[in-house]
Amino acid sequence: MKALVFHGPGKRSWDEVPDPKLQDPGDAVIRVDAVTICGTDLHILKGDVPAVEPGRILGHEAVGTVQEVGPSVTTVRPGDRVLISCITACGRCRFCRESAYGQCLGGGGWILGHRIDGVQAGYVRVPFADTSVHPLPQEVGDEAALMLADILPTAYEVGVLGGRVTPGDVVAVVGAGPIGLAAILTARLFAPSRIIAIDPSGARREAARRQGAHIALAPGENPEGRVRELTEGLGADVAIEAVGLPGTFELCTRLIRPGGRVANVGVHGGPATLHLEELWIRNVTLTTGLVDTHSTPTLLRMLAAGQLDVSGFTTHRFPLGRMEEAYEVFEQASKTGALKVALSRT
């Protein structure tokens, strides 16, 4: 089969590789029908995730059809159409029993495209298939389902739930890429009074407005001052960091009111300064996290019921064989306007 292979920082190629095979009784081999690229994949290519070794097939967001299952798999069978979660769960360890699947101690967690071969390929082996894939209802299309592999549960769990968004809150979302837009979409479920998006890209600010942001600002438009104008000088109740840069993290800590919450979702490839000398006296709460995907079944039901509209996330579409071109478009998002790219087998 063909697959997108990481060959070290800055190096990747669309290579011929062996088809995956079952290795453990709980495995499933799944044909990849649709797949996308994540900002985390770009972090890997920059060298920000040293655990990823050269030779690894990248990718952790896909929809596919089950081809073969191990003898202990009971919840899916060959022919089933499934969502492949970005997080794999053994289902038995302490953290899995607490629904903290991202911290799985039994061989799961974020492993696809990280510690084992991922989904940017013709086929993929998924361990712990019973607890790591989700059968898809007929009314949910492949492209829509892709948004539930990572960005929707990540933004919802790490950003919105981590930031404890409540009705009437003022929420600032720093970064209006796919994760930031997903945070805006899912924050709306809690009826905040204002959602303020901050991003340097005009196209992404417009996308933020379409997803429900009341105000979209460029960094040069004095976001700190504008947020205070809207909050009687206090600041936002919640700031969601959706970029992964020191400057955007520090901006979030300046945007919030005393007693406010900063939910860091972005993947940071280097250190950021935490100004505890300013924050400690303001009763600020800071949360971080890797998604657990415990919300995926709920989000999937909402998507099937028409309660979540993810149609605006995918901006570019390619056949699977044009993976390299899709990467180039996604990497140059400031020029191409790309949000999510979708690659399909047909």
UniProtKB/TrEMBL annotation:
Residues spanning the signal sequence: none
Cofactor(s) demanded: Zn(2+)
Enoyl reductase (ER) domain ranges (all copies): 12-343
SMART domains named in the record: PKS_ER
Region (Disordered), start-end ranges: 1-20
SUPFAM superfamilies registered for this protein in UniProt: GroES-like, NAD(P)-binding Rossmann-fold domains
Ranges in a coiled coil: none
InterPro entries to which the protein is assigned, alphabetical: ADH-like_C, ADH-like_N, ADH_Zn_CS, ER, GroES-like_sf, NAD(P)-bd_dom_sf
Keyword terms, alphabetized: Metal-binding, Oxidoreductase, Zinc
Similarity field: Belongs to the zinc-containing alcohol dehydrogenase family.
Protein name in UniProt: Zinc-dependent alcohol dehydrogenase family protein
